[in-house]
C-alpha cells in the first residue's frame, strides 16, 4: 500500500505536466490571423530575424539589438550564458550592449519583449499605408516589483507591398518596441477560396489571367471554326478533283448550296424587314391612306 501511493502521485504529476505542455502548445501564436474578413498568413515571415540600432556615448557605444521570431520560440544562443539571454518561450528579446574599444562587449540588460502565448497577441488594420499592426505583450522589466517595472511589448507594423523588404528597427522608448516591415503578407487575402487579394491601394485584385478567360474562349471558338471550314473546303476540293476530275469553281464542295447562300440571306433579311415595317406603320396614327 505504501509503494503504490507514491507511484500514483508520480503518475498524476506526469499527466498534469503533459496536459500543461499540450495546453501551452495549443495557446501558442501560429502566425495565422483573421481580421475584418481578411486572412493573413505570416508563415512566410518565419525564422529568426535581427534588427539593431546604436548611438555614441563617448567613450563607448550603446547597441540595442532585437532578435525575434514571429511563428516560433527563439532558440537559446550557443556560447552565451543563460543570464545573458531571454528565457524559453520568448518570441522577441532585446539586448543592450556597451561597446568600448580594446575591451570586451559588456551586456547591460536583457529584456523579454514578447512571449509565445496567442492570448498576448493583438492586431489591428492599418489604413494609410495599408497593412496590419501586430502587438505581442511581454512581461514587465525589471521583473522585481521593487524596481518600478515597466510593461514591455513587441509591435510589428506590417505594410502591404508587392515586394518584401528587410525588417527595420523603428523605435523603442523603454516600453514599446516597434519594427517596420514591408511584405505581401501584410495585404491579406479574401479567405473564401476565390483567390482575390487586396492591392496596396486596398482594391481587390483578381488572380492573373482571370480577365482573359472570356476573350480567350471566343478566340478559340473562331480558331476552331476557321480550321473546320479550311478542312471542309480543302478535303472537299481534293475529293472532287480525285473522283470527278473537277477544276476551277467545280472544286468547291456542294457548289450549288453555296450559290444559294446569298439568296437565302437576302430572304432572311427581307423577312425581318417585313416583320418590322408593320409595327412602324401602326405607330403613325392607326389608319391607312386611300
From TrEMBL:
Domain MRH: 29-189
Gene3D superfamilies: Mannose-6-phosphate receptor binding domain
Membrane topology, from the record: Single-pass type I membrane protein; Single-pass membrane protein
UniProt keywords, alphabetically: Autophagy, Cytoplasmic vesicle, Disulfide bond, Golgi apparatus, Membrane, Mitochondrion, Protein transport, Signal, Transmembrane, Transmembrane helix, Transport
Signal peptide annotation: 1-24
Subcellular location: Cytoplasmic vesicle membrane; Golgi apparatus membrane; Mitochondrion membrane; Preautophagosomal structure membrane
Residue spans crossing the bilayer: 218-239
Superkingdom as given in the UniProt entry: Eukaryota
Region (Disordered): 184-210
Predominant cellular place of this UniProt entry's protein: membrane
Any one GO biological process: autophagy
Assigned GO CC terms: cytoplasmic vesicle membrane; Golgi membrane; mitochondrial membrane; phagophore assembly site membrane
Family membership noted in the UniProt record: Belongs to the ATG27 family.
Protein name in UniProt: Autophagy-related protein 27
High-level lineage: Eukaryota, Fungi, Dikarya, Basidiomycota, Agaricomycotina
Amino acid at each position: 500500500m505504501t509503494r503504490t501511493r507514491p507511484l500514483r502521485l508520480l503518475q498524476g504529476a506526469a499527466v498534469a505536466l503533459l496536459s500543461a505542455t499540450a495546453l501551452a502548445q495549443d495557446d501558442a501564436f501560429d502566425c495565422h490571423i483573421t481580421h475584418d474578413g481578411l486572412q493573413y498568413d505570416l508563415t512566410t515571415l518565419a525564422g529568426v530575424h535581427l534588427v539593431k540600432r546604436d548611438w555614441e556615448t563617448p567613450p563607448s557605444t550603446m547597441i540595442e539589438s532585437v532578435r525575434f521570431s514571429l511563428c516560433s520560440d527563439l532558440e537559446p544562443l550557443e556560447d552565451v550564458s543563460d543570464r545573458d539571454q531571454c528565457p524559453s518561450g520568448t518570441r522577441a528579446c532585446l539586448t543592450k550592449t556597451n561597446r568600448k574599444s580594446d575591451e570586451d562587449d559588456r551586456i547591460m540588460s536583457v529584456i523579454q519583449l514578447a512571449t509565445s502565448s496567442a492570448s498576448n497577441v493583438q492586431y489591428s488594420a492599418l489604413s494609410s499605408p495599408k497593412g496590419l499592426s501586430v502587438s505581442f505583450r511581454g512581461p514587465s522589466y525589471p521583473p522585481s516589483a521593487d524596481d518600478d517595472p515597466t510593461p514591455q511589448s513587441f509591435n510589428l507594423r506590417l505594410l502591404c507591398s508587392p515586394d518584401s523588404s528587410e525588417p527595420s528597427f523603428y523605435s523603442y522608448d523603454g516600453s514599446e518596441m516597434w519594427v517596420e516591415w514591408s511584405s505581401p503578407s501584410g495585404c491579406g487575402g479574401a479567405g473564401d477560396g476565390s483567390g482575390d487579394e487586396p492591392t496596396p491601394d486596398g482594391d481587390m485584385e483578381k488572380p492573373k489571367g482571370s480577365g482573359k478567360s472570356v476573350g480567350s474562349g471566343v478566340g478559340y471558338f473562331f480558331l476552331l471554326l476557321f480550321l473546320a471550314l479550311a478542312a471542309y473546303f480543302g478535303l472537299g476540293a481534293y475529293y472532287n478533283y480525285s473522283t470527278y476530275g473537277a477544276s476551277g469553281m467545280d472544286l468547291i464542295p456542294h457548289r450549288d448550296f453555296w450559290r444559294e447562300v446569298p439568296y437565302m440571306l437576302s430572304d432572311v433579311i427581307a423577312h425581318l424587314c417585313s416583320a418590322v415595317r408593320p409595327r412602324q406603320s401602326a405607330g403613325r396614327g392607326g389608319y391607312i391612306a386611300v
